[in-house]
DNA sequence: CATTCCAGAGAACAGTTGTTAACTGCATGG
DNA sequence: CCATGCAGTTAACAACTGTTCTCTGGAATG
């Protein structure tokens, strides 16, 4: 029961990480539901049976990938929502941060976008769970913003959901655009900024509506 | 070279449709990239080799499924954008239409949501192409709406894209919610309506912004 | 009626898959 | 220093995959 330990556990972690990395790379051209256990171990250079020392199945590995991919996304969200400045600055900064994340972790972005609606149930649910946490966090941040005075809880959450979905959509579009020249990327980033702007305008006038439910 | 013909071609179409139907059903629990040719023919009850009389590969069948799935979506979009009435009515009607489509063609909705970012390149591109057509169509409809007076072309297209993505997202969420009781469905539909409302508010005040680029 | 066409069947192929069992060698803990 | 734990190996399994070639029977054609 050595919570800290030496060469032994370190090597195991290394192999485990190699499996995750290899899987992520193989998933560039296919979905998780078609990823084979042998395929992964072959890429790592270990025997197929060694896989079971780390994961019970490929689905299990998929869930671990969810935690890795969305874990790296968590700090970015915190940064975005805590960014100060006027609306236009915040939007530009948000798009920049998303684009930076796509550049830094393209495979993670692809994995989440693909498996969010993918063919493996447990992975879908793991992603959904993480995204709900993000939504709640964003909703909380929005709630403590003076601009949200008078907003109901449900309205805050629907706005948070809109932001989270928009962020994922933008990340995925930027990833696809990476293949098509710098101009295409700029176009996608510009469109994403416009959409955030429109949402921002809607937010600013949300309580103006006749018959508001607040 | 009989362009019209009898029993022969009719039977072929029937088998072809059976392949499409079987594939769609098998795709409930997996992604296209893991769907096997033999798996499909087994479900239909024909020999594996007969598959090649209809499709060159499973990817090919996937492209055919895109046309089937998004073809059925086309008229619905036309209906939504041509709906008359005030903002709130239109939103309610749009959500109803989407919910109705999800009920009528759940497998199609699942297929599109899953394979839009899925592991098969040609299918992704086919879906992307169709969605761009939808976006252009919605953009055009928005342009001929008096409410869009003074809007630039790029702004119209970004709004259209927002609507199309929102529609798909809502459809997918409704599909997932189908498993979780009628209350869950109502909650999802309500949230979707709120989001459309916020976009609608943003649209109404889009040109109010200081330094508008129109 | 004779001929052609072609959707589907059948058999066989070389590869691949997940999973099992029994093993080896080395870092670990007493 | 010796016994244990355990990451990784090897071999073997039944089942499955996509694709080929050859064949068949019935509709279509003239």
Automatic annotation (TrEMBL), chains A, B:
Residues 13-73 form the HTH tetR-type domain. Residues 36-55 bind DNA. The keyword Magnesium does not apply. It holds the Pfam family TetR_N. Keywords: DNA-binding. It comes from the Bacteria. The keyword DNA-binding applies. One of its GO terms (molecular function) is DNA binding. This is Transcriptional regulator. The lineage of its organism: Bacteria, Bacillati, Actinomycetota, Actinomycetes, Kitasatosporales.
